[in-house]
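[Meeting: bench + compute handoff]

Bench side (C.D.) handed over the final construct sequence. Compute side (W.E.) agreed to return the predicted structure before the next meeting so the bench team could plan truncations. Sequence as handed over:
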Amino acid sequence: PPVSEAPVSAEGTTQYVGEKQIGFVKKVYTKSGKNYLSIDYVQWLTGDAAEKALREDGQCPKTGECIVYDGYYIRNQNPLIRTYELVPDAMIIMQTYSAEQTGIVMNNEEISLNQFKSIFSSRTESDAHLKDVPYIVEISNQQIVKITEQYIP
C-alpha cells in the first residue's frame, strides 16, 4: 500500500522530535508562567553493552560471571543537570502512577502536568517510587514535548 503523502509539518500531526533522552528528573517547577524540568541524563543499557559497562565500572565480582540483574544496567557517568522548558501541552505518560489503586502496571496512563509536578513536591511515601525511576524525555526545539515513565521490573 502507498504511504501517506501528507506533509510531516501538516497541522495536527506529531511535531518533529529532535532528541530522545533518558534520565532522572530532579525537579519540575513553574517560573514566570513557564514550566521547567531539570533532568540528569543516564545510560540505560541491556545485553552485552550492560555487561561490558558493569565490568568497566567495577560492578562485577572478582570471580565468576558478571550478571546483569533484571536485564538492564543504569549508568550515570555525567553529573550535569540539564533544564528544559516544557511546551504548554507536553504529554506525560506514566506506567505505574495508579498501580497501587488498580493493580495494573504498564498502563500508559496520561496525567496532567500538575499531577506530575505533585510527584516531585510530595513528601508522601506513595509517590516516592515515582521520583526514583528514570523518565524518557522527548525534546524538540530545545523544549520538552513528551515525558514517559520508564517501567522498571
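W.E. noted at the follow-up: Residues 51 and 65 are 10 Å apart (CA to CA). C.D. will use this when planning the next construct.
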